[in-house]
Design a protein that fits this description.
Layout lengths: L12 H4 L7 E2 L2 H26 L3 H22 L4 H32 L3 E2 L2 H28 L7 H11 L4 E5 L3 E7 L3 H14 L8 E7 L2 E7 L10 H11 L9 E6 L5 E10 L6 E6 L3 H13 L9 E7 L2 E7 L8 H14 L8 E6 L5 E7 L1
Parallel strand pairs: 1-2, 4-5, 6-7, 9-10, 11-12
Antiparallel strand pairs: 3-4, 5-6, 7-8, 8-9, 10-11, 12-13
């Protein structure tokens, strides 16, 4: 009997099938998804995982370091670019990561699939991207929130959150004179910023000393944020002063009401309020500031009308509510504050209208036509 093998006998599929590949690899679309949701750092993490599973530990470390460096650089540069430029930069990074994944790993992934290997889930890539973005956001949020509340018990969490989100909000700016700046965001335009800057210069707020103001327009209305030095924040009247500036330049940005934020150099909100106008006859008017509302402004106007202080002569009264309580300011002629009889008369008016703004105590302020405070007294 012959022992020569029968080479003509066909080989079965079982005899030629390669061993199953025990790992998965992520293709270029998965890397793109991770990048879209979690920055190039997340995309590079998937590419590093591919390299590691292919036995290329050195390349895995290099691509991971590169991804984190590119992400850090993009975040830093993004703070100084307008929104149109950051959108373009984001698209370029997305396309770049896809091309890089295809160039460096496309062939290896294709061979992996041809040997029966599986591709990593795009859902996993998406979840990784979202998770990484949350970690990145938290890494920025924690120090910002901590700084906003450090030694400032009156600073609310919402203020700190406003400061945090403002860091990610791309800003454009116009320069007024040589050094002063107006940054604008939301639906505010360059023309809006230029008008505001011109009004601030006319008002004397801009003196070419490197002062910055932020203008935002959106669904919640118009907001002007003013950068104030740390030392000035200790001034108890700083909020009223800044809000008064906003009132004076309101027409340049569409009129009242205007939300006003007082921020530090890190754009952390320290104080905030609103400036608005209430008038029953479009002649006499109540300007309300800080935490005072339009309803309170209108209520005070009615009370002043009842007391016959408002009689259609174009009188102006200022209502302010803040951490120091409620104050009502009357614009009077020179010398009125030196006459005890006049002061007593205004105190009587304040006592009569106090229920319209929440009751006593109320601080009475007599101011001149430049709104400079000339006489204060607490009415109880």
């Amino acid at each position: 009997m012959s022992t020569t093998p029968n080479f003509a006998e066909p080989m079965t599929n079982e005899m030629v099938q390669a061993p199953a590949v025990p790992y998965t690899l992520y293709n270029a679309p998965a890397v793109t998804l991770a990048t879209f949701f979690g920055t190039p750092a997340a995309g590079s993490l998937l590419m590093a995982l591919n390299f590691s599973r292919l036995g290329e530990k050195g390349y895995a470390a290099m691509i991971l370091i590169l991804g984190f460096l590119v992400t850090g650089l993009a975040v830093a540069v993004g703070f100084f670019l307008p929104i149109t430029a950051t959108s373009g930069m984001g698209l370029a990074l997305l396309v770049g990561m896809r091309l890089l994944a295809t160039k460096l790993q496309g062939e290896a992934v294709a061979q992996h699939v041809s040997r029966g290997g599986k591709l990593g889930s795009k859902w996993v890539a998406t979840a990784l991207g979202v998770g990484f973005f949350c970690l990145l956001f938290a890494a920025v949020a924690i120090p910002v929130l901590a700084k906003s509340g450090q030694g400032k018990p009156g600073v609310s969490g919402s203020n700190a959150f406003d400061a945090l989100t403002s860091m990610f909000d791309a800003k454009s700016k116009v320069t007024i004179g040589e050094n002063d700046e107006v940054y604008y965001t939301g639906t505010a335009t360059k023309e809006d910023a230029q008008k505001l800057g011109a009004a601030l210069k006319t008002d004397g707020y801009f003196k070419d000393l490197g002062v910055s103001v932020f203008l935002d327009k959106g669904s919640n209305g118009t907001t002007i944020s003013m950068v104030v030095q740390e030392s000035a924040l200790k001034n108890p009247g700083i909020q009223m002063e800044e809000e008064e500036v906003a009132r004076e330049v309101a027409d340049s940005v569409g009129g009242l009401p205007i939300h006003v934020k007082i921020i530090d150099k890190y754009e952390i909100v320290k104080m905030q309020g609103i400036v608005g106008r209430a008038s029953l006859d479009n002649k006499d008017e109540v300007f309300y500031f800080g935490n005072a509302t339009q309803t309170e402004g209108e209520s005070l106007a009615r009370a002043l009308q009842k007391e016959e202080y408002f009689g259609g002569r174009g009188a102006s009264v200022l209502l302010s509510k803040d951490g120091d309580g409620t104050s009502i300011s009357f614009v009077v002629s020179d010398g009125f504050w030196d006459d005890p009889a006049h002061v007593s008369g205004f105190e009587a008016v304040v006592k009569a209208v106090a229920p319209s703004v929440g009751g006593l105590p109320v601080t009475l302020r007599l101011v001149n036509t430049s709104l400079e405070d000339k006489k204060d007294s607490v009415v109880k």
